[in-house]
Prior knowledge:
By secondary structure, the chain is of the alpha+beta class. The protein has helices at about 15-25, 40-50, 85-90, 100-110, 195-205, 220-225, 235-245, 325-345, 375-385, 410-420, 420-425, 475-485, 535-540, and strands at about 30, 55-60, 75, 115, 130, 155, 160-165, 170-175, 175-180, 185, 210-215, 250, 260, 265-270, 275-280, 295-305, 310-315, 350-355, 365-370, 395-400, 425-435, 450-455.
Amino acid sequence: MTSTATTQGTAIQDLRDWLNRVEAIGELVRVREPVDPILEMSSITYLVAKQTPSPAVLFERIKGYEDSPIGARSLWNLLGPSFKRIALTHEEPVDLPRLELIRRVKEKMNRRIPPREVAPEAAPIYENSLFGDDIDLHQLPIPKHWPLDGGRYAGTADVVVTRDPDTGYLNLGTYRMMLQGSRQTGLYLSPGKDARLHITRAWQRGETVKIAAAWGVDPLFMVVGSQTFPKNISEYEFAGGIKGEPIPVVRAKTSDLLIPANAELVVEGEIRPNSIKKEGPFGEFPGYYGRPEAGCPLVDITAVHFRTRPILTNALMADYPSCEQSAFFGVARSARIWSDLDRLGVPGIHGVYAVPAGAGGFGMTIVSLEQRYAGHAAQVLALVAQVPGGAYYTKWIIAVDEDVDPTDIDQVIWAMSSRCNPIDDIDILRNTWSTWLDPTQNPPEKRPYGSKALINACKDHRYLPVFSKRTTLREDVYRSIAARWHQLGLPGEVPTVRAFERDEQAVYHETGAFEPGAHQASTGPAGAPNVPDLQREDEGNGNAFMM
């Protein structure tokens, strides 16, 4: 099956369009029985995410909110571990090979298309609006994710819009927002995040910060809002570049911000100077609870806009594969790192993969390269460890040769086992950029400094001409078999092969043969006959299990 996000002739227009296409590929489950937003929805999501395939889950009846005038529904496991849904979200064929998907997303992230402002009457988000005393966030089924969470969290699969007080550019970020009252939420921002910088600079001037948060979005906004882009270009432009057309936006009602015109639900608010309230803890992306309760900016909600029967989007943070960000980070973060290497002019890169199972896609990065000069692999390892797209948190950076698919963990482990000599090929970087959420850094005062292991699992460049020759298929034989695969009655699709036999001389390093006298024999005690060196022969007899 070859299905694309543009089978209807246009790019995905909103979350409802996205859901229709997800349902068409069989990856949406609609739950029509009442489900509690307190721990039940998140628990179901945690379990569904461990299935294969793992569908998105739309809760259509939410316990305790049957009579809510807003009538909100709740969507979980938006992308989850599904690379089909991730491809669809990026307007790509759902059966695209993983590394090719990453390459295409890399190219799309280099394109920028400014947003297109539409009139308020043309914006679906303004179907319904509430202001002032009419606002009551308790009418929304805002969930509690984990038993020890500090409260109920909206805005986990959201996009928060702020304006840079110096340059005026609009930033989109994905941040959590804990319910703090009928018209108040928290806004948690990690150190260095753009919105936090905007708030800090505004407060230094004694100014109130205007914000807007879309709590029901096309998943592309969650993807773009979670990535690191230049601080002087709006993420609206990068989202447009990926989608291939301008993002429709509309002027907010209580500020000059531009909000997604096709969003499901948007809250507008303001953060007064030094307005802070305690928030947390929260179950975080590594699969552990984060920091204890601490102060964060307090948002006073000034308006709520929503479509009829809006759909709230939620992201569960957990161990893999139940962590919402894991797989899409495996695409978006890989593309960002690969793009950074391209901008630096590093040659020979064949692929980059931020492994989804590695703590939300942060913990491990694999890069495939064609070694072209001395020190090439070491250079690439050091750069992948520190480029803007890859420096945060990552602990394990692994380099493999171009004949290894970095998205195939079996091949990567094979390369580590057959091409990496640990005493020579592992280096450590210390005092690197990490996170307060890293549970391995103890006592906690050591955070947010971390370390990185650089693992060179490439063939030793010094000995490339004499490195043991890999067993590979002849390409003509492979293509002949592939053409007759189903005719031969073989199951599934033909596996992809990256390395084929090349016309070059093999170098053999083993010596010895079984026949006495065919190689240098061992010399026994004086007067004893020579006997074959069977110990050496056993090391290379091709039957390691025979002792």
